[in-house]
Design goal:
The complex is a heterodimer of chains A (692) and B (123). Chain A is mainly α and 692 residues long. Chain A has 32 helices and three strands. In chain A, strand 1 and strand 2 form a beta hairpin. In chain A, helix 11 packs across helix 26 and helix 19 packs parallel to helix 21. Chain A is elongated, with a radius of gyration of 42 Å. Chain B has a three-stranded antiparallel beta sheet with strand order 1-3-2. The chains are: A mainly alpha (692), B mainly alpha (123).
Chain lengths: 692, 123
Amino acid sequence: MSADLRAAGAPNEASGSSGPADAATGVSPIRRYTLADWFGRTSIFTILGSHESSRESSRERRARRRARRRALRASPVDALPAPLAQLVRDVVRGTRLRRAERADIALELAAHFADGLESGESVEALHASFGDPRTASRLLRRAARAKRTPFDRAFLGMLRWGSISVAAVVGIYLVSAAWLWFRRPTIAFNATERLASVMPVPEDGVGAWPQYREAMRWATPWRFGTPGERGDAVAGQHLSVVAGDLSRADQEVWREAAAEIVLHRAEIDQLRAAAMQPALGYPVLHTWRQEDGEVLKGEWGKNNPPPVPPPPHEASVFSVLLPQLGVLRESARILGADAAVAADRGEGDRAVDSLIAIFGVARHAGEHGFLVSKLVEAAIRELAVEQIVEILERRPTAFDLANLARLADALGDLRPESFQIGWSTERIGFEDLLQRVFTDDGDGDGVLLMGELAKYAKVKRTIESSSSGLGGETMEQIIGAMSAPAGALWLEGRRDTLARYDAYFQEMDRLAGLPLWEFDYDPEKWFDGRPETSRRRVFTLFAPAADKLIATQKLMISTMQATRVVVALNRFKLERGHWPVGLDELVPAFLRAIPRDPYDGRALRYELREGAPVVWSIGSDRLDDRGVPGTPQGLPDRSAARAWRAPPKHPFAGDSARPAPRAFFGDWIIFDPARPREYVPPSTEPVAIFGG
Amino acid sequence: MTIERELMRGAGPLAVLKLLERGEMYGYELVEALTRRTDGLLAMGQSTLYPMLYNLEAKGLVKSRWDDSTARSRKYYSLTSAGKKRLSEDTRQWRNIVEAMRALGVVTRGLNCADEPFQGCLS
C-alpha cells in the first residue's frame, strides 16, 4: 500500500481489505480477500450459471485462484503511481459491486495501467485517456451485473424489491404506530350514570343497606379480627364452617358459634328485617362514607385506606367494586347459622324466618345485575336450600306443618325476575370498555388502541388474580405503541366486537330457553385459542362467561325444585306417619308435579331403603349410580356431582383431553336422612348448650 | 477526428470482435491495437473498453481467462463460437451499409479491405 493511501486511510479496494486497520493489526489483507473471493466465486448462482468461464473445471478454478492470490500478493494497485492507484480505487469503489467483482476489476485496471506505463506512456496521459471515473464506475457496474447469471439477477431483483417493500411496510407501520399513539378514546357516555339509571330504586329512597350495615357491625370483629385482637376470628371462621356445612363442625366449634348467635339475636333480627326489604339501594359507584367504614373495612382491604372513587366521567366499569357482596354473603351465613341454632333449640318459626330471609339477601346481592352479582345471588340461594335439607335430615322434627308450608312457598318462588339475567347491565359495562379501548369514528366503529387495551386488560387481571400484569408502565406503553397497528389491522374493530357480543348473548338467550339436560353450549366456539378466534381479543378478554351463569341459575332452579320435594316428603311423613313408597304419592296434595332430574330430564330418583328415603339426581356424569355419592376427596360428598359440567365427548370413557375430577363421578344426593355423619348434634338438651 | 457516440456504439463492439478474431488479447493490447490500426479513429479509453468487454462477455460473445503465469496477471479475452457467428453477421451488415453508402456517394473508395476494414475503407 502506498504511503499516500496509508496516510489517507483509504480502504484497499483491490485487496478487499479494510485499510489501515489491517496494517495496524498485521492481518494480511490477502487472506481476507481470498475468503471473500472464494465465497463470491463459488456461490450457488455461479455454479448454476451458464457462462463459459464458469464451465472450467474445478481444478482449473483452484489453479486460477492460487495464481491470482500470488498476483494479489504483489499488490498491483499499490504498485501503481499514486494518482493511477487512486483512480483505480475511486472507480472500483464507485461500482458498488460485490467484493470479488471489485477485486477482478481492480486487478484488470491495474494491469492495464502497468502495461501502459511499461509501453512508455506517462502517468498523466494514462489518467487522461481513462475517461470520466464516475461514468466508468456506472458502466462497469452495469456491465458486471449483466455478467451475472439470470438466477442471480432475479434473486437480487427480488432482494431489492423485497427490501424496498419491507422498508415501505415498516415505514407505513411506524407512521401508523405514531398516528395511533396520538389517538385517544372518546368517552361518550358516563357508564356509572347509565348503570345507576337501570338499577332498582328503593321506594323510601334509602333501601336496606343502612340496616345491613348496622346489623352487621357487631360481626365485624368476627369477620376481620385476628386471634390476637379478640380471639373471635376463630369463632368467625367457625361460624362460616357451621353455616356452610354443619356436618363438618365438631361439637366444640358448634357450641362457640351457637353461643355467639344466641347472644346477638337482636342484631340478627335486624338483619332479617333488612333482608325482607324490597331493594338494597347500594349505589353502583359507592361514595365512601364514614359510617360504612367498619363494615366495609375488610372488603376494601384491612390496612388500606378506603379508595376514593374516581369522578363519574372517569369511572369505568372496573371502578364498580361491589364491596357489599361480601357483607351480604356473610349476612346469609349468619342467618343460616341462626336457622340451624333455632332448629336445634326447637324454634321452628325462627328457623324458617331466617331461612326465608336468606332468599331476600340473595335477591339483594343480585340487584345490580352484574354477572358476578348474579353468581353471588345463586351461591346465597344454594346456602339456604342446603341449610333447609341439612336441618330436615338432621332434625326432622324441627319444623311443624305450617313451617314446612312456608318453606314450600319460599322454594316455589321461582318468579322469572328472581332468575333474570341482567344482560343490559353487562352490556353497559361492555360498551363502556369499548369506548375506552377503541377510537370513535362517529358511526359506531373505531380503531383498537392497544395501549388502552393493555391498560384495561391489566386492570382486569389485577382484579381477577391480583397479578401485576406485564411489567413496568413504560414497557407496556412501548409494547402497546408498537403493537397498535398490528392490533388495529388484525383484531376485530369496535362495531364487529359489539356485534359479536350481541350474537353471543343471543346464543345465551337461546340457551336460557333450554332445559339443562338439553344444554348444547360449546364454549370453544366463542373463547378457544384458534387463529380465527384470536381476532376476537377484546371480546374474549371482556365478555362475561354468561354460559356459566345460565347453567348455575338453571341448576339453582332445579335445586330449589328438588328441595321442594324434600319439604313435601317431610310434610307427607308428618301428616301420614310414614314415608311415601314413590314420589308420585306426593302429587298433587304435597307437590304439583315431580320435578325432573336436571341431568337427563327424567323424574328425580327416589327409593326407600330400610324404611328411610333417598332422593338423588344422576349427577354430572349422567350415570345412575343408584344414589351413591361422588368422592372427590376420597370421602363421600353428597353434592359434589351436582355442579354443572358439560357432557363429556365420550361419556363412558371420560374426556381424554380434560380428565374429569373424581367429583365428576357419582350421584348428587338430594336427601338422605339416614346417611352417616361425623357430627352428632347435642340433641338431648339443646337449650342447655347455650347456657339458658 | 472523433466518431459520433451512436456510430461508435455500433462500431466499437464489432471492432473489438474483429480484433479478437485472430486470437486472444488483453485489455491494453486491445486499446493499443484499436488506436494504432484505426489511426486513433476508434480509440477508446478504459472507461469504455472494459464495460464493453464485460457486456460482450455477458452476451456470451467473448470469454475471458486470467493468465497468472507471468509476474503480471492479465485477463485475456477471446471469441466464443457465438462471438464468431456474430462477427460474421455484423461484418456482412457493415459491408451492406458501406455498399449502400458508396451507392449514395458517401463512400468513394473501393472495398478491398476485407482483411483490414478499418484502414482506408472509409473516406
